[in-house]
Amino acid sequence: MEQDLDNITYIHTVETLYTAQGLKFQREKYLPKIQFLRQYFGEKFPEIRLLDVGVGYGVLLHILEREHGLKHLYGMDPFPASIEIARQFTTAEITSGNITDTDWPVERGSFDAITCFDVVEHLEQPEIFFVKVKEYLRSGGIVVVTTPHKALPYRMRSIPLLGFPDRNPTHINVKEPDYWRKLAVDQGYEVLDAWKGEHLTHIRLIPKVLTAICFVLKLDHRKIPIVNSFEQSFCMVLRPITNV
After folding, report:
1. Under the phi-then-psi rule, with left for phi > 0, alpha for psi from -120 to 50, and beta for the rest, what region is 92?
2. How far is CA 196 from the centre of its chain?
3. How far apart are alpha carbons 18 and 16 in whole angstroms?
4. Which residues contact 98 (CB under 8 A, 6 or more apart)?
5. Beta-carbon contacts of residue 125 (< 8 Å; ≥ 6 apart)
6. CA pair distance 186, 177, nearest whole angstrom
7. What is the set of domains in the chain, with CATH numbers?
8. Which of 123, 129, 125, 205 is nearest to 162 (CA)?
9. How large a percentage of the chain has pLDDT more than 90?
10. In angstroms, how far is the first alpha carbon of the chain from the final one?
11. pLDDT tens, 98-131?
């Protein structure tokens, strides 16, 4: 089992991510974001410069490179061993850096898209990300950010025999979607799109039943009120107003 034990923000192992089943799960997780990027950039999509902030073990970069043909991929992470693991699975240029650093280890104003998945909830001051990231986007560039979806099912995770406990002790700023929307707008962003998505989860049995019903009825569970309160993640696509 390969894992960066110094990176307590990331509880996965290589085995849980890079098996056939693990990659299937990750593809489903990232597909709506990738589809948005493809639609937004159109024919330019294969040539965009993309920076992933908080690469973990590089799964997003791996999928973008191997399955979607992106060539200009970059990553940033504060954990050296995690970077070395990620480099086994992608040729993206990954460098050491922290969101709170005065200077990120990449060129300012050079990226068409910056992704940051399941990272901002680890920050003591999440607004720092939204302030800093604007410095590294090109005009018209966008930010895609996700964070755990805090709704009633998430709050039920600690109930014995019902919920799946949140095993990540560094989730210190898990907030409701309205908090993140307001934070983005207050920091000068236009919210191009936002949704609750990825997978139905947090508690036992009920999400599986809802998933099966939605599959049979050919419904998108992300768009059904009440059902989408069980979604694992909240995603926003943002564009700085000053960069438009």
Report:
1. beta
2. 12
3. 6
4. 78
5. none
6. 14
7. 14-199+231-243 (3.40.50.150)
8. 205
9. 68
10. 45
11. 999 999 999 999 999 999 999 999 999 999 999 9
Three-class SS of the chain: CCCCCCCCCCCCCHHHHCCHHHHHHHHHHHHHHHHHHHHHHHHHHHHCEEEEECCCCCHHHHHHHHHHCCCEEEEEECCHHHHHHHHCCCCCEEEECCCCCCCCCCCCCCEEEEEEECCHHHCCCCHHHHHHHHHHEEEEEEEEEEEECCCHHHHHHHCCCCECCCCCCCCCCCCCHHHHHHHHHHCCEEEEEEEEEEEECCECCHHHHHHHHHHHHCCCHHHCCCHHHHEEEEEEEEEEHHHC
- Amino acid (one-letter) located at 185: V
Helices (H) and strands (E) in the chain, counts: 8, 7
What tokens were used for 101?
A: 């650093």
**pLDDT tens, 84-101?**
999 999 999 999 999 999
Task: For 18-68, give the DSSP string.
Answer: SSHHHHHHHHHHHHHHHHHHHHHHGGGGGG-EEEEES-TTSHHHHHHHHHH
